[in-house]
Each structure stands twice: as structure tokens, then as C-alpha cells.
# Entry
Amino acid sequence: MEICCKFIRALLCYLPIIFITLGGAMASHKVYPSYPSNSTVKVKQVYRTSYHFQPKKHWINDPNAPMYYKGYYHFFCQYNPKGAVWGNIVWAHSVSTDMINWKWLKPALTPSKWFDKYGCWSGSATILPGDKPVILYTGVIKENPEPGYQVQNYAIPTNYSDPYLQNWVKPNINNPILNPTQENVSSFRDPSTAWFINGYWKMLVGSRHNDRGIAYMYKSKDFVKWTRAKHPFHDKPGTGMWECPDFYPLSSPGVRNGLETYTLGKDHTKYVFKVSLDETRYDYYTIGEYDVVNERYHPDNITVDGWAGLRYDYGNLYASKTFFDPVKKRRILWGWCNESSTTEEDIAKGWAGIELIPRMVWLDPSGKQLLQWPIHELETLRGQKKNIRNVKLNKGDSMEIKGITAAQVDVDVSFTFSSLSKAEAYDRKWDKFPREDLAKDICGIKGATAQGGLGPFGILALASKNLEEYTPVFFRVFKTHVKTYKVLMCSDATLSSTNMNEYKPSFGGFVDVDLADKRLSLRSLIDHSVVESFGEGGKTVITSRVYPKLAVAGDAHLHVFNNGTETIVVEKLHAWSMKRALMN
# Structure
């Protein structure tokens, strides 16, 4: 670790030079040249969330470098301070004591140097020995080839004693720390959090070669001079560009405590490797082993490595980033949720993009997948509560949950049933569907209005009074030809709005669950234009963006329903009206 200390001392020596060279104009990297920047647009509130993270106006996307430092959680994200479309990207910066209520600070990074003239793109934070944070990020130095010529840079705080870390500098010395040599210059981005092992710091950068997705590993003794490992850390043909790679260790199956990133390669058997696939716009992960000697990652044989693999979220989540919370010893996942409205509508409302509720992630007791659950701090926003127990729902029944603010609610429900005998037969013709879209396609065919045997049953979120609009989140159970059961979870935005201009997909994922106790649980976080749902304790998560015209604010309703021949019992339901989070 003496090497790391030398690095810190060296950085501190650079500071006088840095202050002299901080000048420079912010450059723009615009994808929508026909849409002018507009920082004075009047923001429309109708679809704005109340307890999800979002700025007062304009565009946000990827979460960057979440970390904990001197009593505060820090959150950075990609932000356009000039409008509601992608472009003019800077690093927005906020601090919080609970990851729910936030104080906005000035941007941490803006384009100001030759090595980030056309954009400060995504990256990560690493806490070096001595409690010294460093940001690694992608800088764009030329606009061509599209989407830009990319290099990797670093930034450090000007004052380590400031718990808000309000000022960051990008040293002229040693930046960029990585220039592409053999890498694809326009597909070389999103450096990961670094870890230290066997005398070297290691980090990953996402890339591609033709249609092969690649995560390159780089190593350094001093965190300044980096060299590429002999082989890619991991790669896969047919997957396209790998964005926002993330790699972290797991505790034993079923243990909720997380592990520090710096423990990578130190007596742990299982790891998560995650990438965001540019071609599909989903986040995929595998569970596997880290070969420290050969500097390679190997997914377990039970894990599909590709488009049909495990996802953090089977709906609207992208460019996720995790970090270790040293206070509560947990691994936290942040994910960006973009809009499903049109670009013109986003510009008219003056904002676009939210961040989903931070989630705890840990290894399922089976060891086959992750579990995810909203951080418990969210519960501090719970207000008026509604409880329901042991209510039967026969075929075609729907019951409204009254006494709560249905447009801004946290609902947690447990369903039970007495028999599996009425489960529908799984149609083997469905196996001809693309494997990566199988659950989604079945949800499109077997929606909430299609009567079944065991299901569909679940909730109708953001429903209008006469059900002209609603977003059903539901389960459906199928019996296969080998006498096993498939549990399908759907979040169907098809009927969410009478506005025909919106993207209203039916999302779906299978739930790997033992039905021996004949029970399924569902928790949904409903917040005006987002429905974030966790099936069976977080085994399957699906997020939908919706924009109802009728089911808005006080005109929104919430129901539980059953449209299957098997009677369903709402064993217990808890619903809380949610207070507004502070976003100052």
C-alpha cells in the first residue's frame, strides 16, 4: 500500500499546477442538433415522481461513482444542464444521509480540458488507502468517429476534508491515463471501480470488436500508469458493445451482507460480472469465478452468458452501477430508468429520466441468481397505511384498495391458492420464440385480460375510475409437459394510457420459485409515471414507465384482481401512501 500513498502525495503536489490550468469553455456533444438547448423551459409536474431521484428539470442518464464519504452518500449521474435530451453531458452531484432525500450540489465534472472537450462520460469511484476518493471517467476528445473518440481520465477532490467533495480537479499530468491503442476508439468507455490485488490495481473498461462484446482489464502499481492485461477479462461474440461493466464479490448464498470491492480475489468463490448491452438496452449479469492467476472471469455453467441471460430488471433499467456501503455492510445497486414518452413530449415537459430506488443485492440461497430489494430507508416515507387480510378473489374479481394515494404508493401483497391443478398447459410452440424475449412475448400473448387457470392475478396500478387505463402487474402459472411449473411475472403497459404516441410494452420475466407452499408475493413502488415491481422477494424485478391521461394524481386507483379459474386469496396486503422525498 506504500505505492498508493506515494500516488496520493504525488497528486497533492500537482494541485498548484491544476489550479492554474482550470480555465476552459464547456463543449457540447449533441445527439439532437435540431432541438435547441433550453434551460428556461417551464417544467410540467404531471408525471414527475415524488420519491424517486430526479433533478428539477432537464435530462439525466447513467448513475456514476456512487460512494460513501465522511458521513454522506455521494451520487453522481450523467446530466444535461441545458435541456431534456441527451447532450452537453456533465457529472451532476448530490449528497444524502439516507439515499432517499438529496441535496443537489454543483456539477462535479464538466468538459474543460482537451482530454474531455466533447464530454465527461460515465465512470466510477475508487476509495484509495487513507480515505482518498478518485474518479475514473471516460473523456471524449473528438466528435468523430461517432459517437466520439474516447479516452480514460481521472479526477480528484481539491479538499479531502470537505465531506461534500464540492470541488474536483482533472490533473493535466498523466491525463488521459488510458489512450486506445488496439482498442476500438469509438467503443472504449465506462471504467469500473478498481480493486487491489497482488501488488496491482485492476480496473475494467467496456468495448467491442465487431459484434464481440469485450471487457478489457488494465493494471497499475501507482494508479496513474496503466497497462492492458494479456487477454480480455471476459468477452462474448454476438453481444455487441459492452457498456458500464461492473464486477464485485458475493457473500455466501443467502447472506445479505455485501463485500468491499477491494476484497476481489481474496478467498471468495463467487462473483458477479455485469454489462449493459448497447444493442438491447438491458443490463445482464452472470455469476462465476475469478481466475486471479490468468486474470480472467469464468461464468458458471448454469448461467446463460448473453442476451438470454439473467437481468437485474426485465423492464426499464439500464447502465446500472453498484457500490459497497461501508456503514451498513451491504451492496447497493443504482439503475437509470429512461422515458417511454416521445422526445417531443420530453422537451415539452422539461425533463427526462429518473434513477430507480437504490436496491440491496445479495446471492439467493440457491446460488443461482441475485435477490434485490429496495433499501429500507425508503420506508421512512411511508404514511397512511391500509391493511387487508384473507380476501378471496374468484374468477373475474377486482377489488379496489381505498384510503391511500394510489398514484404515490408502496404496496406489498402475498397471494395464496389451494391447488396447482388448474395451471394452464405451457405451449411448447412458445419455445420457438427468441429465448431472450420468451417471457416478454408470452406476457404479450397472455395478458391480464386473457382468462386463465392459475392466474393471471396481481394488481392494477394507476387505474382510471372506469378502467379505461391501468397497468397490471401479475403472475401466471403454467404446467410443463414434464410435470413441472413455470411462474411468469408480467408488467404490462399496453393499456396504461389512452395516449397512442407512447411506447407501451408488455415486459415479462420468469420467477424461479418452489410452489410447494402455494404462495407468491409482489411488492410494487408506484410513483406517478413509474411502476417498479419485485416478485417473490426480489427474485424477478420489472420496471415500467407509464403516462396515463385519466389515472393522474387523485384520479388514480389501485386494485387487486384475479382472472383465473383458481380462486386466489389475498392473504395479506399492506399499502402505504408515500410522502415526497426531499430533492433540494
The first strand starts at residue 58 and ends at 69. Confidence is low (pLDDT under 50) at residues 1-30. The first helix runs from residue 2 to 20. The radius of gyration is 24 Å.
